[in-house]
């Protein structure tokens, strides 16, 4: 799967697919210039595709019942291609400072820091980190990486990154290896 593509489960309904396209374009509009996205200062023009892929996800989990995939009556697995302008191959995300800065700015635009209880109902509990919960929800909480011949299966520029959106608490990182 290409770095700017996604796999997701949802209903197979053309209106829903069109709604997704419109919604994602509103969240991260295509703009090949380096003005909006610092990632595009590298000579690439696909920063919006990285953002869209992050929202839609990379993995799906489907229950198996009696040896068959257990979908709802209208569900299917879809492959979403957000950068149709280049050949495909890849995994997690590029280790490129402009892209990191684009993610930071984009997340702050999606869920700005605001400790008041007016913007985030979560902050009515006495906490002030409602934005951190939203940012984590968009960026995800786990990474699945293939292993081939004992090595992590990354593309040439890919790495795993830890995004800290609420630095006040003690954290832990869990690494789980599944397989033979």
Q: What is the percentage of strand-forming residues? A: 5-15%
Question: Which parts are unreliable, with pLDDT below 50 for 5 consecutive residues or more?
Answer: 85-92
Assembly annotation: single chain
User: Which class of secondary structure composition applies to the elements?
Assistant: alpha+beta
What spatial order of strands do you see in the largest sheet?
1-4
Number of strands: 6
How would you characterize the largest beta sheet? 2 strands, antiparallel
Terminal-residue CA separation: 23 Å
Average pLDDT level: 75
Please give the share of residues in helix: 25-40%
**Rg:** 18 Å
Overall geometry comes to: globular
Task: Determine the number of helices (DSSP H or I, runs of at least 4 residues).
Answer: 4
Element pattern in H and E: EHHEEEHHEE
Characterise the protein shown here.
By secondary structure, the protein is an alpha+beta fold. 27% of the residues lie in helices and 12% in strands. The chain has four helices and six strands; from the N terminus they run βααβββααββ. The protein has helices spanning 14-27, 47-56, 97-110, 130-139; strands spanning 5-11, 64-65, 68-69, 75-81, 147-148, 151-152. The protein has a two-stranded antiparallel ribbon. It has a two-stranded antiparallel ribbon with strand order 2-3. A hairpin with a 2-residue loop joins strand 2 (64-65) and strand 3. The radius of gyration is 18 Å and the shape is globular. The model is unreliable at 85-92 (pLDDT under 50).
